Amino acid sequence: KKTCGVDRKTSDMIKRDLDSARRFWIAETDDPEERRRREESEFLVYENKAGLFADFHGLRHTFISNLGKAGVAPKTAQILARHSDLSLTMNIYTHVDQQEQAAAINSLPRVPGLKKPDEEDGVPA
Questions:
Q1: pTM beyond 0.70
Q2: Sign of the four-CA dihedral 22, 11, 95, 82
Q3: What is the dihedral of CA 43, 44, 49, 55, to 10 degrees?
Q4: Of 61, 54, 58, which is closest to residue 83 (Cα–Cα)?
Q5: Is 96 helix (H, G, I), strand (E, B) or coil?
Q6: What is the maximum span of the chain, computed from C-alpha positions, in angstroms?
């Protein structure tokens, strides 16, 4: 049986690897509060509460999105993803979060004479 295009053997391997990494991650802290927080988190779980899986397909999305975050050229990401179409790489597999969007806007040069919202009337926004 295949799950998201991945055979059962591969799926089971991913589950075992995630479980092992999660156990190690939880055990590496000596702080009881941090350990509790880690145990309650969904970090390194195979299936989260929303029903999303950390499977091979999901790992491809993460890999390609991280290439984008690292500033890798889209054509290079396409080649590394082994996609025949750049549109597939950029429109389906590359995800941009709100933090990245805000960083892009904040990286723009200031318009001369325009005050930031927190500079208006000397009162922070």
A1: no
A2: positive
A3: 140
A4: 61
A5: coil
A6: 65
> At residue 105, what is the residue type?
I
Query: In the chain, where are the structural domains located?
Result: 1-46, 55-109
Give the containing element (helix H, strand E) for 103: helix 98-106
Rg (CA), the chain: 21
Q: Is 67 exposed, middle or buried (0-12, 13-18, 19+ CB in 10 A)?
A: buried
* Number of neighbours of residue 63 by Cβ within 10 angstroms: 13
Backbone angles phi, psi at 6, to 5 degrees: -110, 135
Low-confidence ranges of the chain (pLDDT < 50): 1-3
Residue 6 near residue 55, CB atoms below 8 Å = yes
Torsional sign, CA 105, 108, 109, 113: negative
Whole-number pLDDT of residue 60: 85
The answer to whether the CB of 89 falls within 8 A of the CB of 64 is yes
